[in-house]
Amino acid sequence: MGPVTPGPLARQFIQTLKPLAANGVKVVSYNILAPKYAGYNSYCPPQQLAWEYRRELVLQELSHYGADLVALQECDEAFYGAELGGWMAAAGMQGSFLPRPVGPVPGPTEGIAVMWRSEALELVQPPRSLLYSELGPEVAGLPAEAAGTLPWLKLRELGEGAVMALLRHRASGRLLVFCCTHLFWSPVFPDVKALQAALLCGEVAAYARQAAAQQGQAGKGGPAGVPVVLCGDFNSLAEKRIPDGFDPQLPEGGRLVSGVYSLLAGGALAPEHPDHPHSRVWQPGPLAPTVTPVGGEGAPRFPALALSSAGLRLGSLNALAFGREPPVTNRTAGFAGCLDYVWLSQPDLQVAAALALPYEDGGSPPLMGPAAAAAGAPAGEGAAAGEAGAGAQAGTWRDPLADVAMPAVPDERYASDHLAVGGEVVL
């Protein structure tokens, strides 16, 4: 028998900031496993894998969290327009959905969504949606010749994107940019994911600064212009310490922080990083038999230029609250790792509470177990905004697959192979 963990309805928001400020907003990000991808989770009994069973669990879990901001990934378009639409109406939520035009497998359309509670937040202008494949290198601060390289040609084939909304917090009058994304899934292409993240940062930063100027808030919202909450399944590990077929050699010290995480947490990704498109070697092989896009033969090498977060200073909610990233937010029969994040612009937003994880891994600092909750202070308290990723480095490492008491999901209680992440943030 596998490890016994609390069900999702037992997860609580554990206070990390005392006294709790009045301007708190609850946020949850959740990849709910679209029905057409559930066939990959064949370890789950068919009756529990059926969408008719899982959709009720999703709705129950969302109701339990009672978040003011909800970001969903792998949200089935029909579900968004029907059952979830009814739930949103009853819960006083509004939202915006972006379908993914090109997905990993054929079948019903799925995508990403942002939702906000109308009682707490007012939509200031129509939401903005974008596809990374339709953006040019200039959005990421790159020269035009980057568009002719193999990583960029691969990016042009994909359907990932982002949806963002400019909201006004009714109680405080403060503006907020709320954004959701779902980066490319394949571990063969960390360089393409890093490009997607750089494009995302360029668009979000421009949107936030434009919003600040239009609303007369320029210079009042930190480096971003307006505070930013950026959620999603980034399909990128905070750290890797065991070599595998995708990274057979780890950097000196035996620890690889993914390019996407390095970019978002540190503000830049150097061309020497193994996930940077300048460093990544594109060669067909058993793990990537179609790695070279059609028409990509003889393409120039990606320029040796750092990727940038476009001035965004971001901190991961979990790292800020726990002092490190949790080892597991995605758990299947053969994989366990942290792929899901809520990024907060710094120093605009503080973490007031964090959604407890449904397992304890024995690491240090603790992942908000009873002792940490009683202490009432975040393990990462005092970290500078520029050290947003430092919490992930400070903890005692545990093998996500072997050392963490989290069983493979979905199962009878969990609707997805991902765990919802989130917390309460203070404007």
Automatic annotation (TrEMBL):
Residues 29-362 form the Endonuclease/exonuclease/phosphatase domain. Pfam families: Exo_endo_phos (PF03372). One of its GO terms (molecular function) is 3'-5'-RNA exonuclease activity. InterPro entries: CCR4/nocturin_mRNA_transcr, Endo/exonu/phosph_ase_sf, Endo/exonuclease/phosphatase. PANTHER family: CARBON CATABOLITE REPRESSOR PROTEIN 4 (PTHR12121), POLY(A)-SPECIFIC RIBONUCLEASE (PTHR12121:SF100). This is Endonuclease/exonuclease/phosphatase domain-containing protein.
